[in-house]
Amino acid sequence: MLDDIPAIIVDYAYVIHIKPKYKYHLISRVYRRTSTEISGLILMLLKDGAQKKSSIQKRLNVDNRTLNRYLDILAKQGLITISDKHIEITEKGVYFTEIYKELIRLLDKNRISSRKR
């Protein structure tokens, strides 16, 4: 389901090593996803079919308050519909995911090509 999501979104954890003279030798940091990334991930999950809110929450590892905020935004924009049991993507939401995936592919491709220099 998440296989077609480019690495720039899925790969969000990284580790920073600090020189031994400092108190902490290893600090683990997690990249904070942007609101656009979280919205895009929600829509990509829904593209495979209607989902329960708890399923989306577990897959994206977000708390209930955060998920509700994004679902409200997406519903107001007409990208999803929320019923009592399921959340579904609309045609407008499907269109958005196609554009979003293409944009991420271009950014990811640009990031990889800039490393080669």
From TrEMBL:
InterPro entries: ArnR1-like_HTH, WH-like_DNA-bd_sf, WH_DNA-bd_sf. It comes from Candidatus Nitrosocaldus cavascurensis. SUPFAM superfamilies: Winged helix' DNA-binding domain. It holds the Pfam family HTH_45. Coiled coil: none annotated. It comes from the Archaea. This is ArnR1-like winged helix-turn-helix domain-containing protein. Signal peptide: none annotated. The lineage of its organism: Archaea, Nitrososphaerota, Nitrososphaeria, Candidatus Nitrosocaldales, Candidatus Nitrosocaldaceae. Residues 32-106 form the ArnR1-like winged helix-turn-helix domain.
